[in-house]
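Why should sequence recovery work at all? Because a backbone constrains its sequence more than one might expect. Tight turns favour small or flexible residues, buried strands favour hydrophobic ones, and helices have their own preferences. The token representation captures these environments compactly. In the example below, the structure is given first.
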């Protein structure tokens, strides 16, 4: 299943520095990323969390019946 939308993109800085958040709506397939970046997105009609691996966002966790929300700059299923 091709991912189509990214709701929130989070960049976690090295050495525990506070992450920066950039809200946008862009195709995930067109998004290059850096390891350590996380995003809220969709999979099988449900909110999900993605992590950057090898320059691409990859599925990390499904939120089930919940939704993905950025809390203190980090995506969480709520």
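From this structural description, the recovered sequence reads:
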């Amino acid at each position: 299943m091709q991912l189509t939308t990214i709701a929130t993109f989070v960049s976690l800085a090295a050495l525990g520095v506070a992450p920066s958040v950039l809200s946008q709506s862009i195709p995930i397939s067109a998004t290059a990323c850096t390891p350590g970046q996380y995003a809220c997105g969709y999979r099988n009609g449900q909110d999900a969390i993605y992590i950057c691996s090898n320059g691409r966002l990859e599925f990390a966790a499904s939120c089930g019946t919940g939704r993905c929300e950025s809390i203190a700059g980090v995506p969480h299923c709520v």
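A few observations help interpret the result. The chain has no helices and seven strands.
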